[in-house]
UniProtKB/TrEMBL annotation, chains A, C:
<keyword id="KW-0159">Chromosome partition</keyword>
<feature type="compositionally biased region" description="Basic and acidic residues">
    <location>
        <begin position="171"/>
        <end position="184"/>
    </location>
</feature>
<keyword id="KW-0131">Cell cycle</keyword>
<feature type="compositionally biased region" description="Low complexity">
    <location>
        <begin position="187"/>
        <end position="200"/>
    </location>
</feature>
<dbReference type="InterPro" id="IPR036390">
    <property type="entry name" value="WH_DNA-bd_sf"/>
</dbReference>
<keyword id="KW-0963">Cytoplasm</keyword>
<dbReference type="InterPro" id="IPR005234">
    <property type="entry name" value="ScpB_csome_segregation"/>
</dbReference>
<dbReference type="InterPro" id="IPR036388">
    <property type="entry name" value="WH-like_DNA-bd_sf"/>
</dbReference>
<keyword id="KW-0132">Cell division</keyword>
From TrEMBL, chain B:
<keyword id="KW-0131">Cell cycle</keyword>
<protein>
    <recommendedName>
        <fullName>Segregation and condensation protein A</fullName>
    </recommendedName>
</protein>
<keyword id="KW-0963">Cytoplasm</keyword>
<dbReference type="InterPro" id="IPR003768">
    <property type="entry name" value="ScpA"/>
</dbReference>
<keyword id="KW-0132">Cell division</keyword>
<keyword id="KW-0159">Chromosome partition</keyword>
<comment type="similarity">
    <text>Belongs to the ScpA family.</text>
</comment>
<dbReference type="Pfam" id="PF02616">
    <property type="entry name" value="SMC_ScpA"/>
</dbReference>
<comment type="subunit">
    <text>Component of a cohesin-like complex composed of ScpA, ScpB and the Smc homodimer, in which ScpA and ScpB bind to the head domain of Smc. The presence of the three proteins is required for the association of the complex with DNA.</text>
</comment>
């Protein structure tokens, strides 16, 4: 019988999608299923084996995946005529709002962005399986609540939402109020330009 | 903030415009592109503020409002369809401006929020998510930076696993069938010592391979009295059911068991 | 820049289809395209590297392809297992009767169940290696006697048949406890006692 890590390598490459530990266990007959710890150890060995090679093993939200590292994209992307899809700012802003604010309604997204969110953006995001409806807010109209999916995390090479880069800290509304009070303490017309340097 | 590189707002005769012309003259076809460049009134306002290197916290409302209205007027002049949000923002800016111009009458009303506070809050909030969108876009993603590695699998035919069964399913099935049997009343089932029936199977199994075995060899002293009794009962039951027969060549000779037939 | 063979590895793994030499050349910028001979040499190196691993490099009609060797098909094929079906009630009842009444003939099972037992059920149970024929009853027709197997005990995690749950199974002790608590809580005048009853 081949070594555990070799079997895992074969299975992960044949799968072409992330596999959770449970599914890796299930490729073995019932009586021979390795413990999760043994699997983790073998996967760690593979990770080391792949250093400096044309492939890498990473863990994303749906499990373990073998992929070609980003350093090879200059060569790999020349394989295909089409360039990788780029997404509009509107789509990315909407996705960012769902990712950082989930679960969130379309109305709440529109509130922050100050414009209506086009249906085609919501449709594209759902068709890509990056966002999905996870429920409804119990207010009149029962608007749908959107959240990101596991496929979203997989696609962006993330294991969980906590791996998203932190959002710039919100400015405390009280602090904004205080700051404004200080600046306008001397009744001023709004044309007065502050001589203070911007604080950010 | 001004360090953030702006994408070209428009291309006019192939020339990229990263800054809107100061005199606000924009060729019509470029303005259409320009309108698409902005993601809404908040985006446009942020642009105006950044362009003049102003602090969001200290927006010169009069100036910004005037500029904003100029843009809007121009767009309407060109009969570009303006989203309602732009007009709503214009109305809001006008309201803020008018409130700022009013004298502050009493001390109690000094507490009142700066009319700009809500606008500032929304601008800052939107700015955060503009930033977040950029961060998201910069993350290495599949099909752009990384690619799923796959090798042709040796086989594609799927295996159908046998259905799982729980012990409870088994017990439930038995209860059901026994209840049904009792309902008809023909076959009262009495609970038998399992171990006897199990031993009956074992004895038969043994005879299946040997055909013939010494009676004494069926007994395992290490099983103790209970084990001996169970084996003995199993043998008796098998004899009664005419599955086995006992063979003894002469009195006091060893007793052998063999399958009938 | 990574080694030529590493780039080829990355490109072949990302492609997911056979690539002819011309396409492998084209993943390099025009000025840097390696000679066909250099490519062939690097591919030969990869072939050697993959010996004993979960992947192999082969040349097929339309080019070079990375594939999982056939020796791994026992594991890989379990990746695409279909969802397990469920057994019919008739089968479970038959199995239960064999387990609790063994050794037993088909006729006896039929007597208790009140309906005939299909041959396919007996066949399925024997194929699953849960029951087997352990003898024949010496009555006209010599009907086969069925008993459960060791594999049956293993599957249900039983050391022996005596560990089968007794027919008149006592009620779940937790359920009894909850029931008692509920009954005790009612006569109590103190309304707080009811909050102490465990959730069920």
């Amino acid at each position: 019988m081949p070594a555990l890590k070799t079997i895992l390598e074969a299975v992960l490459l044949a799968a072409g999608e992330p596999l959770p530990l449970e599914r890796l266990q299930k490729v073995f007959p019932e009586a021979e299923q390795p413990e999760r710890e043994a699997l983790r150890a073998a996967l760690a060995e593979l990770t080391v084996d792949y250093a400096g090679r044309g492939l890498e093993l990473i863990e994303v939200a749906s499990g373990f995946r073998v992929q070609v590292p980003g350093t090879f994209s200059p060569w790999v992307s020349r394989l295909w005529e089409e360039r990788a899809a780029t997404y509009s700012r509107a789509l990315l802003e909407t996705l960012a709002l769902v990712a950082y604010r989930q679960p969130v309604t379309r109305g709440e997204i529109e509130e922050v962005r100050g414009v209506s969110v086009s249906s085609s953006i919501m449709k594209t995001l759902q068709e890509r399986d990056w966002i999905k409806i996870v429920g409804h807010r119990e207010v009149p109209g029962r608007p749908a609540l959107y959240a990101t999916t596991r496929a979203f995390l997989d696609y962006f090479n993330l294991k969980s939402l906590s791996e998203l880069p932190p959002l710039a800290a919100p400015r405390d509304p009280d602090a904004i109020g205080a700051e404004l009070d200080r600046r306008i303490a001397v009744p001023s017309s709004d044309s007065t330009t502050s001589t203070e340097s911007p604080d950010d | 903030m001004d360090a953030i590189a702006q994408p070209p707002l428009a291309r006019v005769d192939g020339e990229p415009y990263t800054q809107l012309p100061r005199d606000l003259y924009i060729p019509p076809d470029a303005l259409e592109v320009f309108l698409e460049t902005f993601e809404g009134p908040l985006d446009l306002l942020l642009y105006l503020i950044r362009r003049q290197n102003l602090d969001i916290l200290d927006i010169p409302i009069a100036t910004v409002t005037r500029q904003y209205m100029d843009y809007l007027a121009l767009m309407r002049e060109l009969r570009l369809e303006l989203a309602a949000e732009y007009l709503l923002m214009a109305a809001w800016l006008a309201e803020i401006k008018s409130r700022l111009l009013l004298p502050k009458p009493t001390l109690a009303e000094m507490e009142e929020d700066d009319p700009r506070a809500e606008l500032v809050r929304r601008l800052r909030e939107y700015e955060r998510f503009q930033q977040a969108a950029k961060v998201l876009d910069a993350l290495p993603r599949l099909e752009r930076e990384t690619f799923v590695a796959s090798a042709e699998p040796p086989c594609r035919e799927s295996v159908r696993p046998p259905p799982p069964v729980g012990l409870n399913d088994l017990l439930a099935a038995l209860r059901e069938v026994l209840t049904r049997a009792e309902l008809f009343g023909h076959h009262p089932i009495r609970r038998e010592t399992l171990s006897v029936r199990e031993r009956m199977s074992q004895v038969l199994e043994r005879l299946d391979t040997l055909r013939f075995t010494a009676f004494t060899e069926l007994f395992r002293p290490e099983e103790g009295r209970i084990g001996l009794v169970v084996t003995f009962l199993a043998v008796l039951e098998l004899l009664r059911e005419a599955v086995l027969e006992l063979v003894q060549s002469e009195p006091f000779a060893p007793i052998y068991l063999r399958r009938q037939g």
